[in-house]
Amino acid sequence: MKLVIDETRCKGCNLCVLVCPYRIFKEGTELNDRGIVTPVLDRPERCTNCRLQPLYGRLLCGVCQMICPDQAIAWVDERPFEPHKVEVEF
Ligand code: SF4
Ligand code: SF4
């Protein structure tokens, strides 16, 4: 699973920065198209949900999602690896 911030919803309150035990969210530095500084993700693959949600079949930590006032945090499926589409060029 892949952690994403929906930039169309996030208002840059940085509550997620405060609560994540792995410090995956960091305060951003650049304004987006809406004039909001949204957090940036630091190695989001470390997130408990990213790593273990497929194994357990449910959300595990989710503190950031619970505290986000704008429902801007979600996990999306990553496209599975498709070995038959890999082409090696020599
Ligand atoms: S689910 Fe937990 S570990 Fe993952 S980003 Fe949110 S607060 Fe951090
Ligand atoms: S808690 Fe939600 S709205 Fe606030 S900065 Fe994080 S993602 Fe954006």
TrEMBL record:
GO molecular function: oxidoreductase activity
Residue ranges of domain 4Fe-4S ferredoxin-type in the record: 1-30
PROSITE patterns: 4FE4S_FER_1, 4FE4S_FER_2
Gene3D superfamilies attached to this UniProt entry: 3.30.70.20
Transmembrane segments: none
Protein name: Ferredoxin family protein
Organism of derivation: Methanoculleus receptaculi
